[in-house]
Amino acid sequence: MAILGINAYHGDASAAAVVDGRLVAAAEEERFTRVKHAAGFPSDALRYVYQAAQTSWNDVQCLAVARDSYANMWAKARNAVRLPKLLARRVGVQSRFASIGKAVEDAVGSAKPIPVERVEHHRAHLASAFYVSPFDEAAVISIDGLGDFSSAMWGVGRGNRIFPFGAVNFPHSLGIYYTALTQYLGFPKWGDEYKVMGLASYGEPEMLEEFRRMVIAPNGGRMDFELCPDYFVHHNSVPQMAWGDGEPMLGRLYSRYLEQRLGKAREPHEPIEDRHKAIAASLQRRLEEVMLDRLRQLRKVSGVNKLCLAGGVAFNCVANGKILKETGFDELFVPPAAGDAGLAMGAAMYLWHQMLGNPRDFVMDHAYWGPEFTGSQIAQAINGVRDELSRQRCDVFRIDDEEALCRFAASEIADGNIVGWFQGRMEWGPRALGNRSILADPRRCEMRDILNSKIKRREPFRPFAPSILEERAGEYFEYSRPSPFMLMACAVRPEKRSIISATTHVDGTGRVQTVNIAQNRLYYRLIKSFDELTGVPVILNTSFNENEPVVLCPEEALDCFLRTKMDLLVMGGYVIKRTVETQVPNSD
After folding, report:
1. How far is it between the farthest Cα atoms of the chain?
2. Staple 434 to which of 19, 78, 177, 523, CB 3.0 to 4.6 Å?
3. What pLDDT band is residue 240 in, cutting at 50, 70 and 90?
4. Between 56 and 431, whose confidence is greater?
5. Which CATH number do you get for residue 499?
């Protein structure tokens, strides 16, 4: 039996297909529409996962939707009376969800109705981590902005059941706290929090006492926390939100009082000053204090030494990197799509296990659940841009032998060239993990500036990630466990920092991805070939995009290659190489 899961009418709309309890396909709508964090209904993603499931519509048992209108009903009602705009918005959202079954039928081209089951937001987050983890028993926690009127939920997972212990409800939210300060620092777009996380390493937490007044969370004995309302506006007004088919937008969350305490907010075009770095550092430190203390309490009350973490805050890899050192947990699992995109899979898994009572027999050990393309499709895409390839003086050839292809690409990277690497199924989640990646030499410190100027055109303070052979991780990082989803910042061993300087952040950490041959044979062999050439089992890995969603198909990979200054593009067995550096117009 198949279950389709969706996250709809919210940021990072997505779809997933679960067949007999096993994930078979998952994708974000943004990859198809090319709109970052696309909201609305995930029509294209749903069509893809349904087709990838290779099942008939008669075998689709149910649609699992990651939203439960009846969750926290009394809290919703109280605030709706106090905030009429909130009531109006809820009515509008409900009208969309009322016809969601018809939207699904239209997307897949079927006239047969499908049963719809609602799963509360945070239960879907918890399910997205626990039910695909390798743990039979684990403490579980979800922390994000807001979903179904809650911002956090925690409990224990055992076998095929999740038992919540408690939750934090509106208006208190670590996600809203971080987003509000991200806006204040001049990064207003949906999903910009990761930029501030990178910026935080450049400052000192000089304003930590102010931030402790902002987020009230006594250490020890309690799991809840509160936001001081003076610093925020979401509790007494309803910030403007846009959940249409385009990029989601969120109105200002911070108050004028916050500006009085911290100074004037930075405009996006203004330079970043030391004051902004100190604010970012203080923001990050307070998040870590509150989050890690909550996890210490969860370790005590659960009596379990394994942890599953989900929700948007689970993308804070700096905080994640401190969990095993500082909370008493011995093992940690964070899924690759820990944020709201992962709700689609979580809702489907929750329905299969918790609501239908089915046993577990699936572990997510890789993130490659998106579309893939054949050699003939790649060749057709190349033929479509032959004239432009010729104009930019690019050679096109094939290397059919995998080992030879990896040796060639590794040699080019070692020579200082930047390689677009497009292979196999697209990654699920926001991280490029070796199938839709841009790769470079981690030994060259200048590679960070080269990538930012030639390819990414992004803020210079943002780090690049290291991909390392799993069995060699302990040699380079003060962390030797698998980290396949690039969701933990780990300390680079001091003696190795100069060796992999391009992937070592200013704080001495790297957002590490470990790679083993079972997860991704071709990417493993590429890194192995680079190690054989250079003695370094690490490659710099960044996402294959340029101020857009990660590329999905060969046409998009070619477009990105041609408008930037990548030196090579490797798609399947095809290699496209610039013979001389050509002038490529900026896309700014």
Report:
1. 67
2. 523
3. low
4. 431
5. 3.90.870.20
Percent residues over pLDDT 90 in the chain: 80
What CATH number corresponds to the domain at position 77? Answer: 3.30.420.40
pTM: 0.94
Higher-confidence residue: 243 or 257?
Answer: 257
Could you tell me the pLDDT band of residue 588, with boundaries at 50, 70 and 90? Answer: very low
Residues 161 and 204 reside in one and the same domain: yes
- Cα gap 149→78, rounded to integer Å: 12
Shared domain check, 87 and 140: no
Q: CA 282 to CA 564: how far, in whole Å? A: 36
- Flag whether 568 is in a domain: yes
pLDDT class of 584 with cuts at 50, 70, 90:
very low
In a domain, 565, yes or no: yes
CA dihedral 517, 520, 524, 526 (to 10 degrees): 150
Q: Are 356 and 327 in contact (CB under 8 A)?
A: no
Neighbours of 319 (CB within 10 A): 25
pLDDT of 238 > 90? The answer is no
Peptide bond preceding 585 in cis form (omega within 30 of 0): no
* 416 within 8 A of 467, measured Cβ to Cβ: no
Q: Which amino acid, one-letter code, is at 586?
A: N
Structure tokens at 241: 């939100």
End position of a domain, from candidates 83, 104, 122: 122
Distance, CA of 25 to CA of 452 (rounded, Å): 32
Helix/strand/coil for 65: strand
What b/e sequence results for 289-307 when a residue is b if at least 16 CB atoms lie within 10 Å of its CB, and e otherwise?
bbbbbbbbbbbeebebebb
Element housing 539 (H / E): strand 538-543
E strand spans, 202-355: 215-216, 226-227, 241-242, 249-250, 306-310, 331-333
Measured CA to CA, the distance from residue 588 to residue 197 in angstroms comes to 25
Q: Are residues 288 and 310 in the same domain?
A: yes
Domains held by the chain: number: 3
Residues 51 and 89 in one domain: yes
Return the SS3 of 434: coil
- pLDDT of residue 84 exceeding 80: no
- The pLDDT of residue 316 is 98
In angstroms, the Cα distances linking 539 to 192, 221, 226, 528, 551 are 25, 43, 42, 10, 20
Distances (CA, A) of 464 to 440, 445, 449: 10, 11, 11
d(CA 396, CA 386): 9
Is the same domain home to 52 and 198? no
Cα–Cα distance measured from residue 561 to residue 556, given in angstroms and rounded to the nearest whole number: 8
How does DSSP classify residue 353? I
User: Do 71 and 133 have their domain in common?
Assistant: no
pLDDT band at 112 (very low <50, low <70, confident <90, very high): confident
* Residue 588 domain flag: no
- For residue 567, what are the domain limits? 375-578
Residues 548 and 399 in one domain: yes
**Residue where a domain terminates, one of 122, 149, 180:** 122
Q: Are residues 114 and 137 in the same domain?
A: no
Is residue 360 a part of any domain in this protein?
Answer: no
